[in-house]
């Protein structure tokens, strides 16, 4: 019997129009009624994930910003991680070329140094507005907590940036694609898998009692933690082959799990 079900949001539970299928909402509500803990795991910050929880209408645990923060069903922060000051400044400097859009993420908001046509375009995918903070680099130098960087641009440039980040920082950071045109950069050791594992320990749930679903490279870490992992059918080949199962929808995955 599955006791913990973890779902990615973007491209999995929610489509590009920020809509959730009724069948997925119904399946999640049924799982909750049957005693399954529901967790939403996303690169999004908690305020954005709360919007999704309200649409689902069930209490959920939240793995926010790819594992930087874990939040209880009542909104209590269970665990929070952030970049060391010097590392955050180094990452920001390295990821700030004009042909990329870098969003600096904290526990209180997602910031850009200046609003431009490109940042406004990127901002449409967020569930809460990007905040223009012209002094954000100075604020970082003065100790503003940074939990994640989200970087958007052309895929070849992002692939090159991932190589540069790996060469420069190695295991001091965790970085991967989280969107078709975006990568996320977190402190080393922070990912969805580590966060889900911590939640399993908190809930006293065994690995064989867990399942998850996702569609992107930042979901691979939780695929390796959960006994049953579903990749969305539209996912990249590597994501599909890493998962133990595939599904067209979250509802379809839950139907399979609850039928066991």
From TrEMBL:
Domain of life: Bacteria
Pfam families listed in its UniProt record: Hydrolase_3
Native organism taxonomy: Bacteria, Bacillati, Bacillota, Bacilli, Bacillales
Record protein name field: Haloacid dehalogenase
InterPro entries in the record: Cof (IPR000150), HAD-like_sf (IPR036412), HAD-SF_hydro_IIB (IPR006379), HAD_sf (IPR023214)
Organism per entry: Paenibacillus glycanilyticus
């Amino acid at each position: 019997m599955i006791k913990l079900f973890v779902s990615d949001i973007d491209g999995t539970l929610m489509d590009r129009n920020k809509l959730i299928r009724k069948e997925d909402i119904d399946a999640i509500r049924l799982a909750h009624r049957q005693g399954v803990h529901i967790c939403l795991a996303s690169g999004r910050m908690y305020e954005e994930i709360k919007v999704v929880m309200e649409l689902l209408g069930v209490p959920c645990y939240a793995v926010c910003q790819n594992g930087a923060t874990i939040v209880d069903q009542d909104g209590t922060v269970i665990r929070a991680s952030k970049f060391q000051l010097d590392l955050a400044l180094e990452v920001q400097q390295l990821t700030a070329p004009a042909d990329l859009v870098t969003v600096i993420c904290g526990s209180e908001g997602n910031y850009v140094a200046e609003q431009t046509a490109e940042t406004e375009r990127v901002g449409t995918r967020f569930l809460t507005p990007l905040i223009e903070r012209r002094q954000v680099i100075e604020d970082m130098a003065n100790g503003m907590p940074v939990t994640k960087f989200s970087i958007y641009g052309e895929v070849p440039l992002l692939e090159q940036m991932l190589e540069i980040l790996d060469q420069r920082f190695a295991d001091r950071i965790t970085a991967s694609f989280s969107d078709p045109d975006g990568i996320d950069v977190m402190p080393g050791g922070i990912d969805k898998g580590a966060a889900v594992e911590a939640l399993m320990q908190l809930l006293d749930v065994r690995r064989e009692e867990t399942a998850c679903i996702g569609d992107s490279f930042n979901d691979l870490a939780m695929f390796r933690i959960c006994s049953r992992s579903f990749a969305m059918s539209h996912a990249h080949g590597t994501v599909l082959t890493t998962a133990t199962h595939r599904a067209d929808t979250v509802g379809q995955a839950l139907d399979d799990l609850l039928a066991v």
